[in-house]
Amino acid sequence: MIQPGALLQNRYRVNKQIGQGGMGAVYLATDERFHSTVAIKQTFFDDPALRKAFEREAHLLNHLRHVALPKVATISSKTTVNFS
After folding, report:
1. How many DSSP H helices and E strands does the chain contain?
2. Per-residue pLDDT tens digits for 19-46
């Protein structure tokens, strides 16, 4: 669990956890560089195949634009992805 107030990548300040499931948790955060609200997705799995699939999804979402899809801003080797 990421604690409220934590600063990730020297940029994202975690405000609170807003969801959790079997594979991860989602946090509301502030991008301190652009002063915008973002969501941070943290995964709970260690399986390399799942991690690769998660990264593939993030890269795909980064190239897609639709109001119903999150925009991926960052992916970290610490299995955290930031959505704005």
Report:
1. 1, 6
2. 999 889 999 999 999 999 999 989 888 8
CB 84 within 8 A of CB 36: yes
Place 13 in a pLDDT band, splitting at 50, 70 and 90: very high
Using DSSP, state whether 4 is helix, strand or coil.
coil
Residue 19 counted as domain residue: yes
Q: Does a structural domain hold residue 62?
A: yes
Phi/psi at 36 (5° precision):
-120, 160
Rounded to the nearest 5 percent, the helix, strand and coil shares of the chain are 20, 40, 40
Q: pTM, whole model, 2 decimals?
A: 0.80
Domain range holding 48? 7-83
Total of domains in the chain: 1
